[in-house]
Automatic annotation (TrEMBL):
GO cellular component: cytoplasm
InterPro entries, per database record: CobW/HypB/UreG_nucleotide-bd, P-loop_NTPase, Zinc-reg_GTPase_activator
Stored Gene3D superfamilies: P-loop containing nucleotide triphosphate hydrolases
Domain CobW/HypB/UreG nucleotide-binding as annotated: residue spans: 3-178
SUPFAM superfamilies with a match to the protein in the record: P-loop containing nucleoside triphosphate hydrolases
Native organism: Methanolobus vulcani
Protein name in the entry: CobW/HypB/UreG nucleotide-binding domain-containing protein
Pfam families recorded: cobW
Length: 194
């Protein structure tokens, strides 16, 4: 079972991104699971989830890192046992550092679990271009991500999105940076999922 952790600020488009990736994988015959810690702007519609064969589990916890051993581990094991999905997405709230969550899951040595690169989604038009204006969580998420996905670039000016890209590269020179396309692009999900 592959596990993908996707973080980012509230409203950055995490839920929409996960649904897009789930549809892509489902069209290739994969079963998908989603663990949600926070509801995004776009709710996970039950009909859409059923049509895609997606099973969800909600983490009823104030803080993912505070309850990893009980909530996340138990939810991953339960979804694996009950549904045996090929891929599980963990949608983390904006105060969670996906790379730290991934490191914690690696230490748990879960059987038959492959952790995909940690992803942080940034909303290009809303992203501050001065480092000292970033919230602590946004800065730390961006600096620690293995993949930074720039979303809503088509709604941004070229000057601002170039400044966002420059700041991301400054914060995290090792990250793979991917631009979330406005329209469907077959290569995008494959690139993001490695």
């Amino acid at each position: 079972m592959k596990v993908s952790i996707i973080g980012g600020a509230t409203g950055s488009g995490k839920t929409t991104l996960i649904l897009k990736l789930a549809k892509y994988l489902n069209s290739r015959g994969e079963k998908i699971g989603v663990i949600v810690q926070e509801n995004g702007e776009v709710d996970y519609d039950e009909k859409t989830l059923t049509d895609l064969g997606i099973k969800t589990r909600e983490v009823n916890s104030v803080c993912i890192p505070c309850s990893l051993d009980t909530d996340i581990r138990s939810n991953l094991l339960t979804i694996q046992e009950e549904f045996n999905p090929d891929t599980v997405f963990i949608e983390a709230e904006e105060t969670v550092l996906p790379h730290k969550l991934k490191a914690d899951l690696e230490r748990m040595e879960l059987d038959d679990v492959e952790l995909l690169p940690s992803v942080v989604l940034v909303d290009s038009p809303e992203f501050e271009i001065e480092e000292d204006q970033l919230t602590e969580y946004v800065r730390k998420q961006t600096a620690g991500a293995e993949i930074v996905c720039m979303g809503k670039v088509w709604l941004d000016t070229n000057k601002h999105s170039d400044a966002v890209l420059k700041l991301i590269r400054k914060l995290n020179p090792d990250a793979k940076i991917i631009v979330y396309p406005e329209n469907d692009d077959e290569n995008f999900p494959a690139e993001l999922l490695g």
